Each structure stands twice: as C-alpha cells, then as structure tokens.
Amino acid sequence: MVEPSIDHVGIAVVDLDDAISRWRALGATLVHRETIETDDVDEALLRVGGSFVQLVSPRSAASPVARFLERRGPGLHHVGLGVASCREALREAVEAGFEPIDDAPRPGSRGTTVAFLHPRSTGGVLIELVEQPG
C-alpha cells in the first residue's frame, strides 16, 4: 500500500455556523461547504496547513452524526486518510483484518470517493479512506 496522508480530521458539531466561526478565528480558511444527503449531514471544510478540518452537523435526528452527538457529544468523529485508490485501499484493509462499514467505495464530498472502516477494528477511531477526484 502506498503511504496514506491525513486528508482531514472530522469533527461532529451541533451548530455548523458557530463551529465555522470558531475555526476561522483560529486562522483556518473555509474552502468548501456542502450538504451530503446520503449521510444526512451538512459539512464545512476548512484548510489548516496542508490538510483540512471537516465539520459535520446532522440534518435530522435520524443522521448517524446525530446519534454520535447524543452518545458522545461534540468532538472528534473520524480521521480521513488520503489514498491513491479507495478501492485498492479498502481491499487491502479488509485483507489485513479491518472491518469495513462500506462494502464498496462510494461518492463523498468534493467529488471524492470514500469508504469507512469500523472503529471496532481500528482501535476505536472511525477511519475514512478518501480518494481525490481525477
């Protein structure tokens, strides 16, 4: 496997606009905002150095992020690893014994291709494999 990079750190928040303001006050630059219907969240991506902070806020009580916030409160939700090929990285992760949440890569924000690995198999951290478009 080619060495991955840190694409982003995902943080679950209740109030997206407030969280954006707080990160901007720390010097982060808002570069993207999107509603991700398939995950039932609104997201904001802020550049911090060569990576991003991804703020995710639930759109409804049925959102997985809403359930996360109910159980744990706001905070670290996942780590996004940048990979050359999401399909290949997912295959290699499964072969190495990691438990996938996604059986196959799927569309993510910003035109990316993503797949998630379950925290049960990663030492307690939700991992998102992220392949950039193009």
Please describe what this structure looks like.
By secondary structure, the chain is an alpha+beta fold. The chain contains three helices and eight strands. The protein has helices at residues 16-25, 64-72, 86-95, and strands at 5-12, 29-36, 41-48, 51-58, 75-82, 106-107, 113-117, 126-131. The mean pLDDT is 96.
Could you give the topology of this structure?
Blueprint lengths: L4 E8 L3 H10 L3 E8 L4 E8 L2 E8 L5 H9 L2 E8 L3 H10 L10 E2 L5 E5 L8 E6 L3
Parallel strand pairs: 1-4, 5-8
Antiparallel strand pairs: 1-5, 2-3, 3-4, 6-7, 7-8
Quickly list its features:
2,3-Dihydroxybiphenyl 1,2-Dioxygenase, domain 1; 134 residues; alpha+beta; 40% strand; single chain; 3 helices
Short description:
The chain is of the alpha+beta class and 134 residues long. The longest helix has 10 residues, at 16-25.
